[in-house]
Design goal:
The structure is a homotetramer. Chain A is of the alpha+beta class and about 130 residues long. Chain A is built from 3 helices and 6 strands, in the order βααβββββα. In chain A, strands 1, 2, 3, 4, 5 and 6 form a 6-stranded antiparallel sheet that branches.
Chain lengths: ~130, ~130, ~130, ~130
């Protein structure tokens, strides 16, 4: 399963060198996930089961900086098992096509008692489809 | 070389599940670096040479959540070569001693022309000392 | 002079009650300003003169909360004198049309010596036009 | 009722001009509130009643910038009615004693149904004491 998300670099996300701060890449990656879940009606399933996502790992390689108002395109590849959702985000500068960052990692879902939950079948099945 | 930094979880750093947001760990790790450089008079050397730090990699493992006003202790191990500063942060809950997160990664220094700089000798030499 | 800016509420901008955090409204207001300056070729003038904006006042009234993925529309009114740029942002929920927040304030421009600068004529003149 | 809170400026809170970003002052003000409530055992009362704070107004005057690792001292005056908690934060540079910012505003408490709540008697009574 693949998805694409676009986001624009905001002024307050820059560090004092005028570059996108290293932590903000994780903010972007998180938002790419929320939007993907929402766009595909998976967020309502997560909410319906009373689950919340728990990030287990993030592995980030920074390759090129982003600057004020740069257009970022995040291409994401998702691989879903019954317990773990693996993700790989690749950040591109949408104008220059320069590959600027990769973030690979994994997340699980927990319930309100903070117990690990199986990934709901609706999500698991959706993730097996190859829509792209 | 080792260093220790203490930080308290702030309310606005929590996500809507009441847990410290996954990106904020990188904010804490960054601040641990600034304070370490400053405490050891290395920040003024960085500034004197007109350099700025560029994070190359962050590899994060999340193990236990933090909550509002939790006291976090970050223990950092530093290994310095002539080009790259390697860091490994371990986050502990300072009250329960639970190991909650690790971040390993590396950074370099760049000059105002965005060229990779050697790590200044003053910093390199300091990092070879074993003060702990 | 009036302008409009659209922005979507991100997951990490929520507080632990699931509402947009009170400080993030200022982030949105700031970004609305950068985009306005950029859209109208004023940002390049600011940069050309080596100026940077300095916020002097922000007066915020919060009326209705925003939640995850809400679409926000910010309508801004600008009044420019030779020294001060006055702004009034009104935040609407773009779906429900509920007026959710107002931020009125003022900013000036400073030069690299941190001295107050006159607002460049190009910006002042632009602001006198009534494009709406 | 008066209170004092200390906080240190972090690197990632600076804007690209090296100054504390205008929105971060509200983060600091929020954290000063959480710490005040917690230090005086009021946070547990808020939680016990299932309430959460809702900021109604923030009026900010920026007077002097803060820079990396500056020590900030926030002196707060609190005035409590049965519905509204009024606050006035004054930000000082703790080293130079320069008054750098004021934030005055008000908040209320809401319950889990998002209904306005009276301020709990325990908090109201505490706020009438003059401990300083």
């Amino acid at each position: 399963m693949k998805s694409t998300y676009h986001i624009t670099v905001r002024g307050y996300e820059l560090d004092s060198f005028g570059h996108l701060n290293n932590a903000v890449y994780l903010n972007y990656a998180e938002q790419a996930k929320w939007e993907f879940l929402n766009d595909n009606k998976l967020l309502e399933i997560v909410n319906q089961y009373g689950l919340f996502p728990v990030i287990l790992e993030n592995n980030i390689r920074y390759m090129h900086e982003f600057k004020l108002l740069d257009k970022v395109r995040i291409e994401t590849e998702w691989i879903c098992t019954h317990k773990i959702l693996h993700f790989k985000h690749i950040f591109f500068n949408d104008k220059t096509e320069v590959k600027s960052c990769t973030i690979s990692g994994k997340l699980m879902f927990a319930d309100s008692n903070r117990m690990v939950s199986d990934i709901p079948d609706e999500i698991y099945n959706f993730m097996q489809e190859d829509l792209n």
